[in-house]
Amino acid sequence: MPNYKPEGLLIDTPANRQAFHSLSALQEAHASGRILESRAVVCDPDHNLIVDMGAWRGIIPRDEAALGIAEGTTRDIAIISRVNKPVCYRITGFVKASDGTVIPQLSRRAVQQECQDNYIASLVPGDIIDARVTHLESFGCFVDIGCGIPSLIPIDAISISRISHPRDRFSPAQDIRAVVKALEPGGRVSLSHKELLGTWSENAAMFSAGETVAGIVRSVEEYGVFVELSPNLAGLAEPREGVAVGQHASVYIKSLIPEKMKVKLIIVDSFEASWRAQPTRYFLTEGHLNRWRYSPDCSDRLIETVFDGD
Predict the structure, then answer these.
(1) What is the pTM of this model?
(2) Which of the listed residues 16, 68, 202, 239 has the most CB atoms within 10 Å of its CB?
């Protein structure tokens, strides 16, 4: 059974590259129904995609470029936006141009339909899956969950620590993990991300009172400054002039209070910096979640996500 991964993960594999070594290799891939990947190089005026296959230029007709195009439920921007990016497809046949050039005929829609039927339709809330970031909007992060099929992680589901925009956490083409939050009508999948970044206790265990550590300023309020220590842990520092959202900071940890899920901080310094935060640490990368509780057992405040049950 094929492994239905986000687009871009297959293109540089030896098996994929081997398919373009000769016409006979392409014909074998056609006969076996293999899923291939190549870079789309042109979207013509009729919104057909032209694909770089080494010595050949394959064509994905408009109606075969994505699920829903033929029915009008998917807009043509889904085709146009694939130019200069990897696309998956199957070879459906070959035609010869008037000059004798062989033009492979391709279908991305067929691969997406198979991915939908054999993989996405089998997902249930709580499943942890692979995803690749495609683009970012103020309200959330769009990802490819398999063969170019899109899904959304709303901004408030990205992490416990609040961010002003998904770009604070992700970048296009980044490979991430996500957890299925819900299955929506029409086969769409709603995702979450924060449940994979650890509980309050797991994150707090990485820090100790008396340490001075790195952080990122996420919010400046009259009563204090919220500084993120990790994506699922932020603390409150006393007000300080000249501090701005997005700045990096060095902060002294006064105390960690699990009963109140609080971290008390003192800002030693805050400054602009060009470097990015450390790569995301996942506490969970595979399997299934029925229930995830962020709150420590000793806390009266309950923050949790229930994936199964009522």
Answers:
(1) 0.91
(2) 16
